[in-house]
Design goal:
It is built from 4 helices and 5 strands. Helices cover about 25% and strands about 25% of the residues. The protein has about 160 residues and is of the alpha+beta class. It has one domain (about 10-160): Beta-Lactamase, CATH 3.30.450.20.
Length: about 160
């Protein structure tokens, strides 16, 4: 069962708790265990990555509408490497190797862009395995807010407003 906003307000922790629930006593859950419908609106901020081969080919299996770069209507089957630099998807891709090496969830935060707007956000990547050994997919999610709002608030605080 996916945690509700009432149970956990932080998106990254909701996704982590969901992964832990799906995992049970296994090292990691299978990608078929993930139920985007159960995730509600949080699914709009998630992407399912398929690790296609040992050469670094990563296919976008499913992508939430909030992470889709401008002009990308249907990205199913598209390559992560084709994502525009700086976009949320590309930033997620920068942390993929760490997730694969650790075989564990990896969370990170910072500035990136979503459809050309600079945002401040947090993301989490959780590994999935269809055979219980090899990581075959990674579920990633990112939430964010406009960085301008955050920077303006910090500036106002600095001048005592």
């Amino acid at each position: 069962m996916y945690p509700s906003l009432a149970q956990e307000r932080r998106f990254v922790l909701r996704l982590y708790e969901y992964w832990m629930t799906l995992r049970g006593d296994r090292e990691m859950p299978a990608h078929r265990d993930v139920d985007f419908a159960a995730m509600g609106e949080d699914a709009d901020y998630c992407v399912m990555l398929t690790i296609a081969d040992d050469h670094g080919t990563v296919v976008l299996s499913s992508i939430g509408r909030q992470l889709r770069p401008d002009g990308w209507r249907d990205v199913t089957g598209g390559l992560l490497a084709d994502c525009p630099a700086g976009e949320a998807l590309a930033t997620i891709g920068q942390h993929l190797k760490q997730t694969l090496e650790r075989r564990a969830p990896v969370s990170h935060g910072g500035h990136f862009t979503v459809r050309g707007t600079e945002v401040l956000g947090r993301a989490i990547l959780v590994p999935l395995s269809d055979d219980g050994v090899t990581i075959t997919h990674v579920l990633a999610g990112a939430n964010f807010k406009d960085a301008i709002d955050d920077d303006a608030a910090a500036a106002q605080k600095a001048v005592g407003l």
